[in-house]
From TrEMBL:
Pfam families: Cupin_5. PANTHER family: DUF985 DOMAIN-CONTAINING PROTEIN (PTHR33387:SF3), RMLC-LIKE JELLY ROLL FOLD PROTEIN (PTHR33387). This is Cupin domain-containing protein. InterPro entries: Cupin_DUF985, RmlC-like_jellyroll, RmlC_Cupin_sf, YML079W-like.
Length: 150
């Protein structure tokens, strides 16, 4: 059974926010934010989560499906880290540092994950790599095989 009432996410896939803390924090360079937010995020082949970054740390948790490949890039190095969240890899969660580019795609037909962001997610703290031409071109140059995630 998949979550209901999902809506398209700008990075790809579908999501629904399921928690937004009533507690507020003053986040450096961000202002006041909810202490924590959490979403369900569903990727069904051929959907993908295109490279994007958020201004806070994000924890990805695998709930259902064969797994996902999560890509993480600091925006400067030549290498992109590939993290597999799956039973086969015996890894079910991963923390993406704030301001790191990230992307994901399902390993099988679909993957249901949860994404928690602290301080809480706001769309104003979200950037798609395709809107940052210099970073998009650098990623294409160094990791051409990941161009489909731009």
């Amino acid at each position: 059974m998949q979550p209901t009432n999902l809506e398209p996410h700008p990075e790809g896939g579908n999501y629904r926010e399921v928690f937004r803390s009533i507690h507020k924090v003053d986040a450096k360079n961000l202002g006041t934010r909810s202490a924590l937010t959490h979403i369900y995020f569903l990727l069904e082949k051929p959907e993908k989560s295109c490279f994007h970054k958020v201004s806070s740390e994000e924890v990805w948790n695998l709930y259902k499906g064969e797994g996902i490949r999560l890509y993480q890039w600091d925006g400067e190095s030549d290498e992109v880290e590939v993290i597999e969240l799956s039973e086969a890899a015996n890894q079910f969660c991963h923390v993406v540092p704030a301001h790191h580019w990230q992307a994901a795609e399902p390993i099988g037909d679909s993957a249901l994950v949860g994404c928690s962001v602290a301080p809480g997610f706001e769309f104003q703290d979200f950037t798609l790599i395709r809107d940052c031409v210099g970073h998009a071109e650098l990623l294409k140059k160094n990791q051409a095989q990941l161009s489909h995630l731009i």
